[in-house]
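re: that chain from earlier
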Amino acid sequence: MIACRNSILAALCLAVLGSVPAHGQGAPAEASGAPQTLPGGDEATAPAAPVEFKPGILGKTVQSGVTTNDLGIVDGAPVGTLDDSSDGLGQSMWASSPRGEIEDLLGAIPLVSADPFARTLARRVVLTTSDSPVGPAKRALVTIRIEKLLQAGMIAEAGAIAAQLQLSGDADFARVQADAFLYAGRDNEVCSPSTATRLTSDEQFWLQLRTWCFAVAGDTASAELTRAVLDAQGGADEALDTLMADALTGKTAPPRESVHPTALHIYLLRKIGLAVTNAIAAKLGTAANTLAARDSRNSPADRLAAATRISQTGALAPAEMVAIMNAQSIPADQLTRAPELAAGLAFLPAQSLLRRAATLESRPPAKAALLAVALSADGHRDRLIQTALLNADIAVSLPPSPAIVVERDLIARALILSGRSDAAAAWLGATDKTASQALQVLLDIASPASANAAATQAALTGLATGAAPPQSPSPLSALAIGLSDVLGRPMPANAKSLAASLEGTRWEGLSRRPSDDAVRKLEDAASQPSRRGEVALRVLDIVGANGPSDLPADVTIECVRVLQQVGLGDDARRLAIEALAMAAS
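^ sequence. v structure.
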């Protein structure tokens, strides 16, 4: 009889011996059973059937629907959650694109972003069911996609794609796939053939997973043997032992803190109904912090701490962050000094303080002043979209009083960015003439069915008059006129005739300009329908995770133009709104 020497094996002796038949010398038993729903997780589904490969020409392996390239990286059959009928970019979106460049661009895709344009388009690219481009490769594209989803806190999506295929012999994919299963709580896949690497690898993570899978299958001898190997390697983790034992016996005693937690710790915590704590999340990435921030069993302060660490990743929706901020306890003396104190705080705690102060303020001018401080985010213009979404309800509730002058433009732009163009119209009235005209154009782009067509035509006429020779056009005028042109908006004759010239002007003096080669490659890709996915990647690479706030006008206009050209009109319009709203300041 095997001796029970530690907490997990003691639990096995109590929970398994005498009730589960002992396994012999054959293959270890695996957990089985009907799909389960974990606390906060998705319903697990049956594991995908293993992919079988056959010898191919020149020693490669071939299978229908599977891409195998010159360096031996197998991409597998097309997988994803979006297709042509559900907002996908098309199965052939990489058909004529260079594999090496797609791999590099996908690795840099700004899915981890609080910018709505960047995150929305990047999400569509990563989730689209598509064939892989052909050519030499360093990593399987599906590995990069799952990795990006986990980094962005898209846990359910990562688990769904990970469950759709297996790649034999790809250790890189195997680990990313296992993490996706564990974070998503997919019971049926965690100890399935999809994680067979655990049976052969001597890495600590795989040994820990092997121990759990043997234990949950009732194979006490194999679990103890694997645990002994971990001890010999110095990989003992008492916190993990406790979690495994509790999961086997149905206990829910909070474990001691693990020095090096992994996705397996997160999986077991959720399986036994315990919260992913702020302390554990702080040692891990976006996925764990997303779970900690969402768990109402954590204190409001701990949820705010977890949310603060990932506030710029986009993992939490604005409504989720607002709920966390609203739950905070803030002393009255801090509210009276909100702008002063906010300057020394991290982004989300500062927003929480300013939001509470603005909510409680009853005087419109004072409320507008507090709202403006929150919207400006201590001078970070690239965060205006996020601050607008976090404070949209306050902006909507504020009446456009004549006493509010300085803040009018900022509030108008925030309302447009948060989707309240109807409320924004009453706030137009900038002191700067060009800015006021650009805001009217922005309002027209944001609400194409606007009844203010005459006001928009007058604004474009004014911008064109101020930009025509011998006047010196401004980047803001060029951006407003150029975006109206490439989006096909109605334009007066003088603005239409000037548009091409302004769009072709090279605007310097801004902090970020892509290389001429990057723009050329974007235009080349846009000329071929079979490179639509590449167009999206190249635009995202140019725009970046922080949005278009510091891009030159001509570059922004060109990105909008090519998106419109390849049929991504909604994305083109979203980018135009963001760019013009952040420029009109």
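The radius of gyration is 28 Å.
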